Task: inverse folding
């Protein structure tokens, strides 16, 4: 059974940076696509970024050029480096893993951008 555990969330000032981590266990990490999603209260969960390998990444337009997704297959971990954070980035961030039609989700980590 795949398990995903996010960490690195917290409170940061506008313009600051934060790096989220998602630890994968329970299966072969390199065979799974990974992604980050976020959900603010009262809003739909939305895609932030996805990665299948270092050469294939995808970003939401709202985070393009500010966020970077990466993965370390040796550590079974996916990261989301967030720079130039804005208050509208405030949300619960979720790690997602999938292979074919089977999806797994982490518990989420809160990111709050406020002065």
Result:
């Amino acid at each position: 059974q795949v398990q995903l555990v996010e960490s690195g969330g917290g409170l940061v000032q506008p313009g600051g940076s934060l790096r989220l981590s998602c630890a994968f266990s329970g299966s072969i990490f390199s065979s799974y696509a990974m992604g980050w999603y976020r959900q603010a209260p009262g809003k739909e969960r939305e895609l932030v970024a996805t990665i299948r390998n270092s050469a294939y990444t995808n970003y939401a337009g709202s985070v393009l050029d500010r966020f970077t997704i990466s993965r370390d297959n040796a550590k079974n971990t996916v990261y989301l480096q967030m720079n130039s954070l804005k208050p509208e980035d405030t949300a619960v961030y979720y790690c997602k893993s999938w292979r074919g039609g089977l999806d797994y989700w982490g518990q989420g980590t809160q990111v709050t951008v406020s002065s």
